[in-house]
Design brief:
The protein is an alpha/beta fold. It is about 25% helix and about 25% strand. The strands form three sheets. A seven-stranded mixed beta sheet has the order 1-2-3-4-5-6-7, with helices on one face. The protein has a five-stranded mixed beta sheet with strand order 8-9-10-11-14, with no helix packed on it.
Length: about 240
Amino acid sequence: MPLRPILPGIFHLDFPWTNAWLLLRGDEAAIIVSGTCRDRPALLAMLGEALPEGARLQSVLLTHGHCDHAGNAAFLADIRGAGIVTHREEEPYVAGNRSYARSGFRTMGVSSIIFRLADVFYPVSRHPVERILTDGDKVETPIGDLLVVETPGHTCGHISYFHEREGWLFSGDALLSVIPFVQRPGLSLAPPIFSLNMRASRESARKIAALGPCVLFPGHGWALTEDTLARIRSFTSGLDG
């Protein structure tokens, strides 16, 4: 079972497409990212293994509303009573009927077609959001307060979550630790075909570097626990624009 303890109170839920991070202290839990709807059996199995009997899942913290991150948010809200939290710009994709597929003259572009196919084969069930976030907000979790950091580019309302005291950064798709497509370890940005604005993505990566994280928990790849800040700064210093 791809469930791995990383640090005290933090478990890696390793799905085929993406990572979820379970935050657990005592009988209180929260989850950052929820996988695709097709990850549901694995998600339930891993939660069953990790959570003590009677544990409460407080919240589903979303970095953005793509299908590989928000696919089980509504499901967990329904069966576990977890509150969904996300950025105000992502709320229409999580609770409303907006699609990430491009419109207008870009409707038939490759990116738009991919997102339309995702809407069909990996649908995100919609559910009201309990709390809408913006930059600088604090979110209470079982491992302590997390600072909301706006890191747009991959999507317009993408956010990361930063544990200021410990230096732990949950970056979602703002900064990855795997080279996309080839699946080789290395820091990278999400590919342009899946992202809205690459210039903003580069700025968000530099914003992450400025925070000075000592551990990186990305949406794709592996947790970085050694030489993290030096590696992030080296990567971002080479970004153009």
